[in-house]
Design a protein that fits this description.
Number of helices: 29
Shape: globular
Radius of gyration: 28 Å
Largest sheet: 7 strands, parallel
Strand order of the largest sheet: 13-14-12-15-16-11-17
């Protein structure tokens, strides 16, 4: 056994049941040893809840107390279920079922449907929005795209709260829920949607749970069969359980109480989908003899980050707040959270991009940095700013790694090369495992340098590059590993959905960031109206917004930056105010007490740095005030006619491609397409005119300005620049 085997990426399986318990803190160990009866684990952010429950299952299996096939662990996302399966496999408990509620229910439904109903199971409707649109049309209700999405969400909420179409209007009124349309209209659309599904023999994801519940309620023999198979249940993220999921769990359990639930009421952020923390908060009432363990040792975040997180919850109100956990950081001290106020949103995005570039230059990997915002519509200005700063990024929310077409194709190619062995000409000049993988994947589109631009081609390359990095890590961890060994490892990871990390700064909404963590987190757009969001009107809705910010803060391990802009666009009225949730926590916002509840640090005034902010940006064609980032870059409305010099634009694109190859960077890191369009429309002749174009900052002006001005003047780039360099 070599030392490399103990790599954190490929850990050694514990030798015994007792070895599974090694390294657990006292509270985690208490969870692992509580193998009988109801168990409630109240686990704060970063306290190692997944570690505790996977070691609990693995210890029970390895000690012979639990049979692997008798344990069902359920959670809410495929990613979380995959991570759980991966950890159990590493602990020597690979036979345990770890699934989402929907996946577990669908498996049971597929097995029992022929016996209970007969015939084929209704086809699963992957996307219900098209059928909802048809239902609305049949009800003679016109819905635009946004309304259609919202009505679809309402139907999903109604189903997980077990609300039938006829009861929907009353249920909305009782829940103080803001319906996107007249509740009676939505009730009609909902009823038509259900009718169309029945007529076409299709079902949606909510039906998977509803039908399983129906079978278990009506057929006691089948319920008993499932209960004989599954003796022990573990539910992760229990604060997010919906009434329908709780009903299914109750039917799985029957009159038994071998149930372990894990959750944190302070991380309830999905109530709009029907999730409620009531089941977690009422657990001890339903199970008076439950073992309750609190995990409060935070291994993720520094004391400074934890201090701010605790400060946020200290101001919370409501039932969930009464059960908040006071976290205790186990890490060494780090930097104070940074608070920055900017004049406008573009300045905030540019300032954030500069800070990220500085962190990367200081050694923080791009993949360990995230920009988190309240709504997805905020991403565009950050995508643009990061592209202008030459910083790679990825949008959160793509399909699972091993389900991507390019990854499946790569797996087939690697498997074929492994079978061919020395007979594959591709591998003739390769010396080690990583070089073999690079050779094989080069036939699928992998290159040593990433392709220019973004989009599908770039996404494909990033996936293949992630496989190359995984092969390099695997070779370092297991000396002498072969291509066949790597293929076996990929197969196991695919089965467990244990994906390698694609490098790049993550852009994500706060909701999408739940369950993730990074070394550095930038929380942006923290103004009233965005945090809390404008439509959060009731006290409970506002408190959920506070919890959402708490989730964002607790994603950070070391560096945490919080920022806001006083206006939307340059020169706009500075009418915005920082979020109320930071009052008493950020410097200068009023104290909560002598000790203070938040972190230290200071509020910086983000100047935008590279140039003075102008007044309102006006369209140079019609004179209208511009507000969208893309329009401000072009200095005209999208609909106004373009006077772009097409020939100049093509020359600029060719020049950009050459520059990108020389620098070994994607083309957008030189200039984005929008910036090139703006240059080709304005045709600047001086440094000042070029610098006035959005996307051309001081750094890019110094680096590329001479070339760009030469191209605009109809000259060849390079000569004048070389003369300038010689004068310095």
């Amino acid at each position: 056994m070599t030392a490399a085997t103990h790599s954190p990426l490929f850990p050694q399986v514990p030798e015994s049941a007792d070895a599974v318990l090694d390294g657990l803190d006292p509270e985690q160990r208490e969870v692992a040893l509580a193998l009988h009866g109801p168990v409630c684990v109240l686990a704060g952010a970063g306290t190692g809840k997944t570690r505790a429950i996977t070691h609990r299952i693995a210890y029970g299996v390895r000690a012979g107390i639990l049979q692997p096939g008798s344990v069902l662990a359920v959670t809410f996302t495929n990613r979380a279920a995959g991570e759980m399966r991966g950890r159990l496999r590493e602990l020597g408990a690979g036979g345990v079922q770890a699934r989402t509620f929907h996946s577990a229910a669908l498996r049971q439904l597929q097995y029992f449907w022929p016996k209970v109903v007969g015939g084929d199971l209704p086809r699963l409707l992957e996307r219900k929005i098209q059928l909802v649109a048809e239902s609305a049309a049949r009800c003679r209700v016109r819905l635009d795209r946004n309304e259609l999405r919202d009505v679809t969400g309402e139907i999903e909420w109604a189903k997980v709260t077990q609300t039938v179409p006829g009861d929907y209007p009353a249920a909305v009124a009782k829940s103080v829920r803001d319906a996107p349309r007249d509740p009676a209209e939505i009730g009609q659309i909902y009823a038509m949607y259900e009718q169309l599904k029945r007529d076409r023999s299709v079902m949606d994801f909510e039906d998977v749970l509803l039908l399983t519940v129906g079978i278990l309620q009506d057929r006691h023999d089948i319920a008993d069969q499932i209960r004989r198979q599954y003796q022990h249940f573990v539910v992760d993220e229990y604060q997010d359980v919906s009434p329908l999921q709780q009903r299914l769990l109750d039917l799985w359990l029957g009159d038994r109480d071998n149930l372990c639930v894990v959750g944190d009421a302070s991380q309830t952020i999905y109530s709009f989908t029907g999730a409620t923390p009531d089941h977690l908060l009422n657990f001890r009432t339903r199970h008076p003899n439950a073992t309750v363990v609190k995990l409060v040792r935070d291994y993720r975040s520094t004391p400074q980050v934890v201090h701010l997180a605790n400060g946020l919850l200290s101001q919370a109100r409501g039932r969930a707040a009464e059960h908040r956990l006071e976290l205790i950081s186990q890490r060494d001290p780090g930097p104070e959270p940074a608070y920055t106020e900017y004049a406008d949103e573009p300045a905030e995005a540019e300032g954030t991009a500069r800070r990220i570039r500085d962190l990367i230059a200081a050694g923080v990997p791009a993949g360990e940095i995230a920009v988190l915002y309240r709504i997805n519509a905020q991403s565009e200005v950050y995508e643009q700013a990061l592209a202008d700063a030459g910083v790679p990024y990825q949008l959160r929310g793509a399909e699972r790694f091993f389900e991507r077409q390019e990854v499946r194709e790569a797996g087939i190619a690697l498997r074929g090369a492994a079978r061919a062995g020395g007979n594959d000409a591709l591998l003739d000049d390769t010396e080690d495992l990583p070089s073999q993988v690079r050779a094989v994947l080069s036939t699928k589109g992998w290159t040593t340098e990433p392709p220019a631009g973004s989009g599908a081609v770039r996404d494909r390359w990033e996936s293949l590059a992630a496989l190359v990095r995984l092969a390099e890590d695997f070779a370092r961890a297991r000396s002498g590993a072969t291509l066949s060994d790597l293929v076996a490892e990929l197969d196991e990871r695919a089965a467990a959905q244990h994906a390698p990390t694609v490098q790049g700064v993550t852009l994500a909404s706060l909701h999408a960031a739940k369950g993730l963590e990074w070394d550095a987190v930038f929380l942006v757009g923290l103004t009233e109206g965005m945090m809390p969001i404008t439509y959060a009107k009731t006290d409970e809705q506002v408190e959920e917004e506070r919890r959402l910010l708490y989730v964002g803060v607790t994603r950070a391990r070391l560096h945490l930056s919080l920022s806001w802009a006083l206006s939307r666009s340059p020169g706009g009225r500075a009418s915005r105010r920082p979020t109320r949730f930071l009052k008493g926590l950020r410097p200068g916002s009023g104290a909560l007490g002598a000790a203070g509840a938040g972190g230290g640090g200071s509020v910086e005034r983000g100047s935008g740095g590279r140039r003075k902010r102008r007044g309102p940006v006006l369209c140079r064609v019609c004179g209208a005030t511009l507000t969208e980032a893309g329009e401000m870059k072009l200095m005209r409305c999208e609909d106004c006619p373009s006077d772009m010099d097409e020939a100049l634009y093509e020359r600029l694109r060719e020049w950009r491609s050459d520059q990108a190859k020389q620098l070994g960077q994607p083309a957008y890191c030189v200039f984005t397409d929008k910036t090139l369009m703006a240059i080709a429309e304005c045709v600047p002749s001086t440094d000042g005119e070029l610098a006035a174009i959005s996307g051309v900052g001081a750094r890019k002006l110094d680096r590329f300005g001479a070339d760009v001005l030469a191209l605009c003047a109809g000259e060849e780039p390079g000569e004048e620049r070389a003369e300038d360099d010689g004068e310095d």
